[in-house]
Amino acid sequence: MLADYVPILILLLVVIGFVVFNLAVSEILGRRRATRGKASTYECGIDPETNARGRFSVKFFLVAVLFILFDIESVFLIPLGVNLKAFAAAGAGTFLLVEMILFMVVLGLGLAYIWRKGGLEWD
Amino acid sequence: MSAEILAFLVLATATVAGGVVTLWSRYVVHSAFGLMLSLLGVAGFYVLLGSDFLAVTQVVVYVGGVVVLYLFGVMLTPPDREERSIRRIAVAGIFAVAALVVLLKAVFGMEGRWYGVDPDRGPASGGAVIREVGNAFMDKEAYLLPFEIASVLLLVALVGAVFIARREGGRGS
Amino acid sequence: MDFRLTTTDLHALLPLVILSAGACLVLLIDLFLREEARSRVLPPLTSLILLGALGAGIEQYISLSPGSFRFPSERLGPLLTPIWRHQVFTAVGAILLCGIALAVHWISTSWLREEDRPAYGEYQCLLLLFPIGTILLIGARNLMLAFVGLEIFSVALYVLTAMRRTRSRAVEAGLKYFLLGAFAAAIFLYGSALIYAGKGTLDLPDLGAISREGLPAPVGLAALGGGILFLALFFKASVAPFHMWTPDVYQGAPTPITALMSTGTKTAAFFLLITAARLFPHEILPLIPILAIVSILVGNAGALRQTDLKRLLAYSGVAHAGYLLVAYCAIALGQGHQDAHTAIRAILYYLAVYGITNLAAFGVLAWLERREESVLTFEGIRGLGRRNPFCAAVLALAALSLAGIPPTAGFWAKYQVFAAALSAGQTTAAVVGILGSVVGLYYYLRILVALYFEPAPEEARIPAAGFAGALTLGLSGAAILLFGIFPSLLVDPLIHIRL
Q1: Domains along chain B?
Q2: B168 touching chain C per CB within 8 A
Q3: Is A103 domain-assigned?
Q4: Which residue, C15, C37, C302, C381, has fewest beta-carbon neighbours within 10 Å?
Q5: Is the separation of the CB atoms in A57 and A69 below 8 Å?
Q6: Inter-chain residue contact C148 with B172, CB threshold 8 Å
Q7: Would you state the pLDDT for residue C462?
Q8: Each residue of C223-262: b (16+ CB within 10 Å) or e?
Q9: B169 vs A: CB within 8 A
Q10: What's the confidence (pLDDT) of residue B170?
Q11: pLDDT of residue B172
């Protein structure tokens, strides 16, 4: 039912409202006194060292790729997990479980591969 | 106007607006955020169609994963303003309009024969869709083989990504 | 609900099971063995796995052919029936692709040893995953499964293409192939989605069952989806005008991988073109002869201007896709059941011969190449007939076979293709094909001239090829001659193809 999503809608509205409200209030009430420090790029109180538009390391990208792959794995497994009881009642529980384990073993092998090859090491 | 239609209009506006920003923005980062809006709108459509599982998947995989991947990709590449000149966008626009015409013609060629979509069926109640998806793996459609093989596909992608992106001389090489 | 896998199911999937388990095993061994041990263990293991899968494919072929009593019932269980095609057609595809992968593996063993950073585990693992994807594509009775197969072998190829990351040309080729290939995959998926929206099913209809009574043409969204699907397949098969990527990618990829790409991808794409033939909207069927003619013209015209042999073979690959499409016209536009079956046999025969021939040609190039890429030009092979008679003989045979000159298998392949088209009434395409082959003679004969009638340069060095590489070249050269002299050896096994 669509009514189930009303809480999500409310949350969404609250979040958007919070952001808009805070930005608006600080815009209206805040005083502006530009100083040298304020005008510079903000970097945790330390003077910026390099151009922020520089290229990032490929490591970030690799992490994101790995994240998506394991994300998709969970998307594949959840529907089967939800149905496991129903299938077990129909006498196919073991079969389904074996299939799921096989699926995870293949991806576990992938994880072992990344690990051994240093794909998870940052430095 | 029912709440459903209102929601549809809002979502449609968001999806199309996101798409337009994706295509027309001169900054790649803006495009990525436009894409995110568009994908969120599509997730909303899934909710309207009663497919909660698909909506969550859309948010988790596309909004949470793929768009982040795009953003990293953008940060990996040096900016190139010339890439998105008006001329190129115009050429793409012509193709897009032509494709739209063909698609609409095909849709109207259906003569009301839509399969897999039952306009009278309301949204499913919570948890039903995920069971249907699970059943399709084994029961109705016998998608068990594609499911097993999907793990091999993910393995190829894993090995490939690490093989290509890994530093020279990592451990074990 | 019945969830058991029957023995027939396992029998049907045996090549896939062997290959998948083998790929995982190779990856495991790669993780836990030292460098030196890996280089000794992995190549023979890979050969063994591929030979096992090849044997399983041959065994399937035998037990599926009429007159076999080994398996009383070859009907699949409920889990595989809707999705898998347990037929001679699939078995032939499995044999072809395992054979191709095996040959590429043998070609690359000595080539790999000379690399700066030989990556044994990954290379062999991806090489084993390639036939998995292509066999899935061939055996699938469902577009979803076909798509997963397509992605598996495509991703494996993208990675193998960009394997030599330190060379800008390889990276460029990998990127180009990846971007265009990902686009083609997206198009494939979009087409499938539209077909589902229009028909409510992703099934690939059986060609035989339908071609007898004729199929209602797809309409509306299904027609649009079918058209889009075929664009993606034409891209994979490098049919003009979707061939732009071919020369650059073929040139930039490592030579054994180019061999894999040119033979394996084309084979898989044409197998799927056959099984998906009935999804093609009838409005654009008349385009197929035109595409065939354009491919033949563009491929031959492009090849005439090349001095780099890999680029030349790339353009010749476009022309050969055109010849294959000439036979495909008979399936798409032919009148009856008989036309379609003659054409399917002609296409399979052509793919087998083209595979063997291209493997021979690229095998010689991989042997010559090693580190310096400049040798793969007409300059580089001058006088090879005296420097290395074996290599030169195999390359000459391959060139003759590609040109379609009688004592070689290529002649019979072309003959069958054009005969199939003519008997289905596709005269124009067949005539253009024959004229195109005549034009093609020029550049294939140029290879022969360079090999035997030009003086050898002084400093030329021929690296030693390993036993496996030499064996592959010898076998494929012998096969070109054998099937050229006794064409029935390859024609007869294809008689049992039914769809």
Answers
A1: 3-118 (1.20.120.1200)
A2: yes
A3: yes
A4: C37
A5: no
A6: no
A7: 65
A8: bbbbbbbbebbbbbbbbbebbebbbbbbbbbbbbbbbbbb
A9: no
A10: 41
A11: 36
